[in-house]
Amino acid sequence: MDKTLPVEGKFELMALPYAPDALEPVISAETLGFHHGKHLAAYVNNLNAALPGTGLENMALEDVFMNVGDGTFFNNAGQILNHNLYFSQFMPPKADNAPTGRLAEAIEAEFGSFEAFKEIFTKTGAALFGSGWVWLAADDKDNLVITQEANASNPMRRNLRPLMTMDVWEHAYYLDYQNRRPDHLAALWQIINWDVVAERYRK
Ligand code: MN
């Protein structure tokens, strides 16, 4: 995975690779506006505000997350990394959306079928207590694994490569789905850009 470097000691809010209403009705423009423009922006601002004078000003985001304890730096760097991976893996809704090629074969080998994988992944996300993330990740032999990560963590802390994720913090779905987290997770399968996920798997 390419590292994310600060520019003059500051990290930038990622630009969304689609229009604010492009993911409707799965994710509304309103939810996307708050999630990207307020929540992610706050993590970026918090990290940038904490950096001056620490000696970490030129460190890559990934290295801050991996190496600088478990407090403010870990939380904000982790949330920036997680949201950058999350927002960049979506596309407008597509019926019968599914991976192809080597990634599809790996999913079938590990989970039996794509349908079985989706069911296990969605259940894992629905069962995560409190705030966090459910991930598809790969180990150094390219074997696939689903992990639950609390709060700001991600599979890099388990020496796994993050491939695809669903955000189960309430801010990700409450405006559109209220308490119905499983419905939100089930709908997200329509907007996963599997080409982006396959590219992460290839590296
Ligand atoms: Mn979020």
Summarize the amount of helix as a percent range.
Answer: 40-55%
CATH topology call of the largest domain: minor pseudopilin epsh fold
What is the averaged pLDDT score?
Answer: 96
State the major sheet: 3 strands, antiparallel
Strand content is 5-15%
Bound molecules: manganese (II) ion
CATH architecture of the largest domain: 3-Layer(bab) Sandwich
Structural class: mainly alpha
Strand-and-helix sequence, N→C?
HHHHHEEEHHH
Straight-line N-to-C gap: 7 Å
Query: Looking at the structure, what is the overall shape?
Result: globular
Q: What multimeric state do the chains show?
A: single chain
Under CATH, the homologous superfamily of the largest domain reads Iron/manganese superoxide dismutase, C-terminal domain
How are the strands ordered across the major sheet? 2-1-3
* Number of H- or I-type helical stretches: 8
The unreliable regions are none
Number of strands: 3
Provide an overview of this structure.
- With 203 residues, the chain is mainly alpha-helical.
- Helix content is 44%, strand content 10%.
- It has eight helices and three strands, in the order αααααβββααα.
- It has helices at 29-50, 61-67, 72-87, 101-111, 114-126, 174-177, 181-188, 194-202, and strands at 132-138, 144-150, 161-167.
- Strands 2-1-3 form a three-stranded antiparallel beta sheet, sandwiched between helices.
- Helix 1 packs antiparallel against helix 3, helix 2 (61-67) crosses helix 3 (72-87) and helix 4 (101-111) crosses helix 5 (114-126).
- The longest helix is centred in the first third of the chain and has 22 residues, at 29-50.
- It is globular and about 50 Å long.
- The site of manganese (II) ion has 7 residues, from helix 1.
